[in-house]
């Protein structure tokens, strides 16, 4: 806050959680909002991550006030932009959508196989919003089908933060469903190693209840991985017609969508190409140009 108070120029806060430091600054500011997950956690009995404690309540409130006060809000998806307008009351003319980009030199199809068998892939945490329970139930349905013989579910990423015993909950469900031998937890995987996992998966599955954008979907498409997502607004916005989408909490529908990808070779090839083509439109160069346009708009209004 001391540093911000000394500034006399407009600044860009690149994450909504920096907003709490800007309220007492004298400078004008632009803020990027990646999602409103913690705002929704304040209001719900079924939190997307975990129920905010008293300190969380305060910092979330400060972040939201900063978003409302900002001279411009950059939302990483139209879905997040709508949330900012509808839930925080920010005027639409102050909200600008700038999609995330992608490092296309890194995320592309690669030849090296990281895993010897057939597998479907999930990349992310095990927070409630990620809805991994529905994926595990869908996978249980799949294992009863010949098309899934020898198929493994590979889960990449840490369980989540220290807010709750996320891995304990996941492993308990894995055991209840009799999937202990069929699910692999890799833990954290470096970005340089991720493209190989995406490139050789039968499909990437993201059944999230809420996302602000959905980076794994974009990364998977860029690597030629067929993508199956929930019908969550941000995910369908990113994936478009390049993947399959199903209702978020319908394990049967999710299992059928995955089975369709597994059994229809022509569709799998088509989804690979559609994903690569769609991912090409998400670049950091384009994001930078659109961000500069936001800066210009703010400076024009202040002159």
Describe the structure.
- Helix 8 links the parallel strand 8 and strand 9 (227-230).
- The model has no long low-confidence stretch (mean pLDDT 94).
- The longest helix has 19 residues, at 284-302.
- The strands form three sheets. Strands 1-2-3-4 form a four-stranded parallel beta sheet, with helices on both faces. The chain has a three-stranded parallel beta sheet with strand order 5-6-7, with helices on one face. A three-stranded parallel beta sheet has the order 8-9-10, sandwiched between helices.
- The chain is α/β, with parallel strands linked by helices.
- It has helices at residues 2-6, 37-43, 54-69, 78-88, 132-142, 166-176, 194-200, 215-222, 233-239, 251-263, 265-279, 284-302, and strands spanning 11-13, 29-33, 72-75, 95-97, 119-123, 152-156, 183-187, 204-206, 227-230, 244-246.
- It has two domains: 2-101 and 283-302, Rossmann fold; 119-279, Rossmann fold, CATH 3.40.50.
- The chain contains twelve helices and ten strands.
- Helix content is 43%, strand content 13%.
- It starts with a helix and ends with a helix.
- The radius of gyration is 21 Å and the shape is globular.
Give the topology:
Blueprint: H1 2-6, E1 11-13, E2 29-33, H2 37-43, H3 54-69, E3 72-75, H4 78-88, E4 95-97, E5 119-123, H5 132-142, E6 152-156, H6 166-176, E7 183-187, H7 194-200, E8 204-206, H8 215-222, E9 227-230, H9 233-239, E10 244-246, H10 251-263, H11 265-279, H12 284-302
Helix pairs in contact: 5-10, 8-11
Largest sheet: 4 strands, parallel
Text of the CATH class of the largest domain: Alpha Beta
Strand content: 5-15%
Query: What does the average pLDDT come to?
Result: 94
């Amino acid at each position: 806050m001391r540093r911000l108070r000394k500034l006399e120029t407009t600044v860009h806060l690149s994450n909504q959680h920096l907003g709490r430091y800007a309220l007492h600054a004298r400078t004008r500011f632009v803020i990027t909002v990646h999602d409103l997950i913690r705002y929704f956690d304040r209001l719900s009995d079924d939190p997307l991550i975990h129920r905010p404690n008293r300190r969380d309540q305060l910092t979330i409130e400060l972040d939201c006030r900063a978003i409302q006060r900002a001279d411009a809000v950059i939302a990483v998806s139209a879905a997040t932009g709508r949330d900012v307008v509808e839930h925080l009351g920010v005027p639409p003319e102050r909200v600008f959508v700038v999609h995330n980009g992608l490092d296309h030199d890194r995320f592309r199809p690669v030849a090296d196989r990281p895993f010897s068998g057939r597998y479907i892939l999930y990349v992310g945490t095990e927070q409630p919003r990620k809805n991994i329970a529905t994926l595990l139930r869908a996978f249980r349905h799949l294992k009863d089908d010949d098309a899934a013989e020898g198929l493994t579910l590979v889960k990449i990423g840490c369980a989540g933060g220290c807010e709750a015993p996320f891995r304990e909950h996941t492993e308990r469900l894995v055991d209840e469903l009799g999937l202990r031998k069929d699910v692999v937890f890799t833990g954290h995987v470096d970005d340089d190693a991720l493209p190989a996992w995406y490139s050789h998966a039968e499909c990437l599955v993201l059944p999230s209840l809420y996302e602000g954008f959905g980076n794994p979907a974009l990364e998977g498409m860029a690597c030629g991985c067929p993508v199956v997502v929930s019908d969550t607004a941000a995910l369908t916005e990113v994936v478009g017609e390049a993947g399959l989408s199903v209702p978020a909490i319908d394990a049967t529908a999710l299992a059928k969508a995955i089975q369709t990808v597994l059994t229809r070779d022509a569709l799998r090839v088509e989804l690979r190409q559609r994903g690569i083509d769609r991912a090409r439109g998400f670049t950091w160069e384009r994001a930078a140009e659109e961000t500069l346009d936001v800066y210009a708009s703010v400076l024009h209004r202040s002159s």
